[in-house]
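Exam revision sheet. Question 4 asks you to relate a sequence to its structure. Input first:
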Amino acid sequence: MTITVRGLLATTIVLSAVGWAFASEAAAQQATVQCKVTANGAWAKGSVVLMRGEKKVASKACETDIRVAPGEYNAVVRLEGALDRPSETQTITVTADEKKIVKGDFATGTLTVTVKAKGGGSAKVTVKRGGKSVGTAKSGKAFQLSTGVYDISVKHRGEEVRFEKVEVNAGERRTLNAQF
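Answer key, structure tokens:
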């Protein structure tokens, strides 16, 4: 059997065209997922993670397209910037060439802890909900939390002040004053 350069070139072109056709068909069999997040009804920074079972398929910032194969996913929508990192999980099904927008609306309030102490300085603020730590912050800085009831401890130079059952309501801005 004799293989010519022309025959080899023609075979390469045909195989390339077939590969391109399969690639184009695979690309056409994709869906788009995007998320939109609000906090108390206003735009907020968020992200989404798409899961199939325990496997993470994709993740991106909200309002950015994610291209995935058609099918069923668990979409974990998260509010970014809140100390307790709240999230909502929704089961979604997407079909080829469909654009699905997953929405999350989070009820949050803002809390600031100030310190009044001789010599000044800042303190470490620890926030707990249901006995579990949800995060830490620096005194004097406002931070966002999901609505609910929290226990707050403030540590400054070896001393501690506690605030128990602090209620955070949607849209509320609250200040706690720790006296040392």
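Marking note for examiners. Residues 5-28 form the longest helix (24 residues).
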